[in-house]
Amino acid sequence: MRERRHFWRSRPSGMLLASSLGDLVAVTLLAALGVLMAAIPLSLIAATLAVMLAYLLFVDVVKVRIFRALHV
Q1: Taking CA 35 as the corner, what is the angle to CA 34 and CA 38, rounded to the nearest 5 degrees?
Q2: Per residue in 24-54, pLDDT tens?
Q3: For residues 60 and 6, is the Cβ–Cβ distance under 8 A?
Q4: CB-based burial of residue 68 (10 Å sphere; 0-12 exposed, 13-18 middle, 19+ buried)?
């Protein structure tokens, strides 16, 4: 999905939002329960999600500034 503004300015469709959240929950459960892999502590999963969210916000701010500088 391409968005020249901040990503929170346009809401994704309900189906996309539901499938993304469902995937996040499913992968978190598989990792925490150790299905077909060694179990990962919930604290590590939460830390990974927090780092991912921080990176998402950082990259979004950089993207918007670059688009504004290029007048795109």
Answers
A1: 35
A2: 999 999 999 999 999 999 999 999 999 999 9
A3: yes
A4: exposed
**For helices 42-70 and 14-33, angle between their N-to-C axes, nearest 10 degrees:** 140
Q: Where are the alpha helices (DSSP H) in the chain?
A: 14-33, 42-70
CB 31 within 8 A of CB 25: no
Task: Record the pTM.
Answer: 0.76
Neighbours of 65 (CB within 10 A): 10
